[in-house]
Amino acid sequence: MQILVNSNHSVDVTSALEEHVKAAVESELERFDDQLTRVEVHLNDENSGKSGPQDKRCQMEARVKGHDPISTSHKADSLALAIDGAAEKLNHALAHALDKKLNHH
User: Fold this and answer.
1) 61-66 contacts, C-beta under 8 A, 24 or more apart
2) CA–CA separation, 97 vs 53, rounded Å?
3) Backbone angles phi, psi at 64, to 5 degrees
4) What are the residue boundaries of the structural domains of the chain, listed by start?
5) Which fold is adopted by the domain 2-103?
6) 54: left (phi over 0), alpha (psi -120 to 50) or beta
7) What tens digit of pLDDT does each residue of 1-35 get?
8) Cβ neighbours of residue 92 closer than 8 Å, sequence gap 6 or more
9) Which of 17, 15, 16, 65 is nearest to 39 (CA)?
10) CA-to-CA distance for 82 and 59, rounded, in angstroms?
11) Per DSSP, what are the bridge partners of residue 3?
12) What angle do CA 63, 92, 9 make, to 5 degrees?
């Protein structure tokens, strides 16, 4: 599973931030590893520079073999919380989509 981390100019993607993203995605989505080709992660600070509640946003899109991409997003007060929330939501979305698909065969 390839993990791509993208951001607009509002977020400085440091190696530590990239590591956090990869760790969160791998721990949440490990069981889907065989079915995923890649996960694209988009980080955004919606107030760029100004602080505000829930202004950090993480959107994740999982590319699933033989399936439409599945996308989730999560807003939080920090990027770390946004990343963790989006990864958790993606885990649930994948479980729902793939379990349903597996049960139909």
Assistant:
1) 62/29, 62/32, 62/36, 62/38, 62/90, 62/93, 62/94, 63/36, 63/37, 63/38, 63/39, 64/32, 64/35, 64/36, 64/37, 64/94, 64/97, 64/98, 65/35, 65/36, 65/37
2) 31
3) -105, 135
4) 2-103
5) Double Stranded RNA Binding Domain (3.30.160)
6) left
7) 999 999 988 889 999 999 999 999 999 999 999 99
8) none
9) 65
10) 9
11) 39
12) 55
User: How many Cα atoms are found within 13 Å in the side-chain-facing hemisphere of 4?
Assistant: 10
| pLDDT > 80? residue 95 | yes
Own/partner pairs, 78-82, CB within 8 angstroms, 24+ separation: 79/11, 79/17, 79/20, 79/43, 79/45, 80/20, 81/56, 82/43, 82/56, 82/57, 82/58
pTM given for the model: 0.89
